[in-house]
Design brief:
Blueprint (H helix, E strand, L loop, with lengths): L6 E11 L7 E6 L21 E4 H10 L5 E6 L6 H13 L3 E6 L3 H5 L6 H5 L4 E4 L7 E4 L2 E3 L3 E4 L15 E5 L4 E5 L5
Parallel strand pairs: 2-4, 4-5, 5-6
Antiparallel strand pairs: 1-2, 1-3, 6-9, 7-8, 10-11
């Protein structure tokens, strides 16, 4: 009996980005988040509603067709709300020497408690975790973070702080159908 591919509910995606981690990365923003951070940068991604339902196999095939990627970045929404499927995708990417960056409103210590289905499996596939809720009053111009309470966790050594030095804070991408902004707004 053939195993069915896991499903992802994707809010948006970019085939190539330089502002969402070191190197050139594919970025997935997942749909749905249990947090409601005031001034959330992606308020359209908060509700648990079907957006773009894709299989892990489909995303993996798309990833493989994009040349010269360093890895993938997961944001949202809340990636750990879809941890089981993202762990499978991340595993495939890391098996091909790609790196995985992930943002989460949860703190690392919460994720390690294994109370969220697939959380530990996804953590085991992440090279750099950026954890913590965005707090508007603590907005800061820090690499890959919107507020100073958010922490960087270099989980595997494949990504180091030095890899973050020249990452652009913001990026605008023109596709055939829309103009996409990504990155971290300044605190001024």
């Amino acid at each position: 009996m053939e195993q069915q591919s896991l499903l992802l509910n994707i809010a948006s995606w970019l085939p190539r980005s330089h502002a969402n981690g070191p190197g050139t990365r594919m970025v997935l923003w997942v749909q749905g988040c249990p947090f409601r951070c005031p001034s959330c940068q992606n308020p359209d991604y908060l509700n648990y509603q079907p957006k773009h339902i894709k299989t892990v196999d489909w995303v993996w095939q798309v990833y493989q067709q994009i040349p010269n990627l360093t890895g993938i970045s997961f944001s949202g929404g809340e990636p750990f709300a879809q941890a089981v499927a993202l762990a499978e995708l991340a595993s495939r990417i890391r098996a091909q020497a790609g790196t995985v960056v992930c943002w989460s409103g949860y703190k690392l210590e919460q994720l390690q408690q294994d109370n969220i289905p697939g959380a530990v499996d996804l953590l085991n596939q992440i090279d750099l975790l950026v954890d913590g809720l965005f707090i508007k009053e603590q907005a800061a111009n820090l690499p890959l973070r919107g507020s100073s309470n958010q922490r960087l966790h270099f989980l595997t050594g494949k990504i180091t702080y030095d890899d973050l030095i020249n990452i652009p804070r913001q990026e605008w991408t023109l596709t055939s159908s829309k103009y996409i902004y990504t990155g971290f707004p300044g605190n001024g």
